[in-house]
Fold these 3 entries.
Entry 1:
Amino acid sequence: MKKSISRLFLVGAISSLALVSCNNDDDNKGNGNTNPSGFVANPADFKGELKSGDKITLDATKTYYLTGKIQVNDGAVLTIPAGTKIIANGGTSSFIAVAQGGQIYSNGTAEKPVVFTSEKGTPGSWGGVVLCGKAPINKAKTATAEVSELTYGGDVATDNSGSITYTRIEFAGAIYNSEKEFNGLSLFGVGSGTKIEYVQLYAGSDDGVEFFGGTVNTKYIVSNENEDDQFDWTEGWVGINEYWYGKEGRNKGNRGIEADNNSSNHTLTPISNPSIKNATLIGLGATYTGEGENQAMKLRVGTKGKFENFVLANWAKGIDIEHDATLAWIPNDLFLKNVQFVNVTTEATGKTSAGLAVDVSKAYAKANNNGAGAGVDVPTWAKGWTRGL
């Protein structure tokens, strides 16, 4: 009997010790986080580098003030749960960048989107979100991202940089200099294993989203009131996309889409060749006299593309195709099927590399369609979690 009691006390003592140990360990980790590098997500001063082995989940009940660069390095994971708000105002010093091998999970819901914004509420208040993956590009085998100095590119087409869903990125686009400017979302060599769906890019000072090569696919993207292009690609991007809604605003922004292959060598491979189905691009009206060309789609320097069910509304020009390498893809590798023009002065123009005008009527076929889902109106899928529409 005494022996049994002794054993009972011994077991109890060990259990108590284990409980204390676990509690201390939980305090060190914080809500299940692991931070072998010592990184701490301080809501009042959110900045720093997550290193290999760091797995950090933010607290949706807190507001995080982005005071500098957050960099998610190879082997690290940053998770941003539904309803989290991150406020930045630090210009080019405030941005979130995911390096090759790092991952970000910014997954909101329609009722509780993740929001990246600024207190100033003005375009260019902060950098934006930058993902650098290992998927192919045509600039070189690998290259250095222009706004984060991180390496991108490679040969892993299915590379996975994480997931961004039901997320708003507002007032980004801080300017480094005349040659370097952040976008709302910059995707450098990002692979098809990455999920980009239900994302809004709102009121940035440059492009809404830009693809620098890679194989990443997207669905349900809203890009509105950004001061340059709403959608942009270059360096051999080959993603598959559905449901894009782009709208100019703030009396700025000259194009819905600006599409390139490679400006230095128009025939470099892999050649930009995205497919985009169900899209609406709305301009500021045919009489808009702001900076830049007033056109829905600029296709140039050798890009290919397959487009279907497009509504182009309120533009001086609908489609502009430039350079010999681009023109050569018409109609087999560059074609717009089911395009509807609404209040567009000139449907399409073409120009050779020498600047000579050419007919590009074989590059598209007209037909009424619903574009992103509701013609020129805001589609149902974009309601409730977006702003400015």
Note: The mean pLDDT is 92.
Entry 2:
Amino acid sequence: MRLVLLGPPGAGKGTQAQILVETYNIPQLSTGDMLRAAIKAGTPLGLEAKAIVDRGDLVSDAIVSGIISERMDEPDCANGFILDGFPRTIAQAEALDDMLDAKGLKLDAVVEIKADPDVLIERIINRAKETGGARTDDNEDVLRKRLVVYNEQTAPLVSFYAGQGLLRSVDGMQPINEVTASIKAAIE
């Protein structure tokens, strides 16, 4: 099963991806996690990405697409994967389509986790407190900028994937287990 999770920052994509990983035994390909790992390791790409992420901006399509394409070729992706944080733009979605075509693959579904922006800000503030600020992007000002960027650049993917017949929308404001049940019902 090959899935894309869409939703604004703090909507619960990472939480739901982990549950789906365990349920379907497929890896989560999180560009955020991959970039955070590069940042933590202090690689040249990581240092470049850190400056971009700290501003609340998005890393270039070429960097993200390359990371994702290489990761899809790993043996644990043979039975599928969950993309979390990619694609973020129509250009990335088109690049993903081309990438999958070249590999002889296709997406099974795109799951949109809908969430109220005001509640998301509360969630992010709480996550920052719980994790002791482990994520440099967990603060209200950066989140507000990321929500604007999401609405401008990523929200159009909803129409893009609806047009392909792949979009499944779920209410991300429900309790975690109910969001999971909604996702499973939508993709099975």
Note: The longest helix spans residues 117-131.
Entry 3:
Amino acid sequence: MSIKASPRKHLWVWFLWLAVFYSTWLLLLQAEGAWEAAKGHWPMALAMAIGSYAAGSTPMGGGTVGFPVLVLLFDMPATLGRDFSFAVQSIGMVSASIFILARRQPLAWAMLKGAVVGALIGAPIGIIFFAPLVPDLWIKVVFAVLWGSFGVLHLYRIGEIAGHVGMTEFDEQWDHRVGFMLGLVASLLAVSVTGVGIDMVIYAALVLLCRADLKIAIPTSVVIMAFTSVYGVAIKTLTNSWQPGVYENWLAAAPVVALGAPLGVFIVERIGRKPILMVVAALCVGQFIWTCFAEQDALGVWGIALSLAALGLCLMVFEKLRSWGGILVAEAQRKNDQRRAPPEAAPEPFINPDEPAVTKST
């Protein structure tokens, strides 16, 4: 009986990344007024200490905490929250992704590659053409609905989601196509508007469609959000469309998230993901209620009703994915059982003992 050796880890790559990042950050602090700006935005650094931990241990980007803190708590424009999500995740999620890859953790590579290709197409179209058309109020509502539905899903399906082991193997090309479509739609309609979302969509597909283990689904969602965030930063920089105040908040939060997100990846393997997901799910539902309450005058009765309907629609989509996943998993299991079954032996010819034997003449 052979024992399969665990894949070799390369943590020196992550430590090298940290050395490069902190050297660059310290260099940026030498600019006039930079240190004062970083100190002046310490509340964001404190908030992202919690947010970055959640980003590494759950399928939520750091912007999922940064956005409501800036928009709901500090009453900043939603466009600032979105742009800050791109900026802070380009450090926190990238740091967590390097940590994940250096430790050789398992990923859903086929779906991940498809999502990357989809994001390459959808993100620039969404950021340049679609996002500017969405009013500030509805950016808040879209964010609240997406993550509110995510929270409700986990509050009543957490036992099932946390109970998956391994991952159902479908056709690799099928996984790639699904990842591409989800990455394209999520980056075009969600990431471009709120700065987050593709991580949640890919995660939902993995746990609901493929019945993937959280140890596979969450790291995969972290990596796709890291890629999309860096890509978003590049697009925002090339189009010179950053909102004022992003850099100052980033300067304060970046050194925290560079360590916080990988810390979440590391600690969650020792305490389990289910308790953290439950807390995060409750926070997601709470921010939806907070948004509806804070914006009730602007939304009106019909706006709140529409928000609730949108949340219900998201849940229906999640349940449809779960139902479809059950069918796909059963079909895949049936095919695997057929391949593993031994071939049926050919039936022996019947010989009547009352008939004389026939010999073949030469």
Note: The radius of gyration is 25 Å.
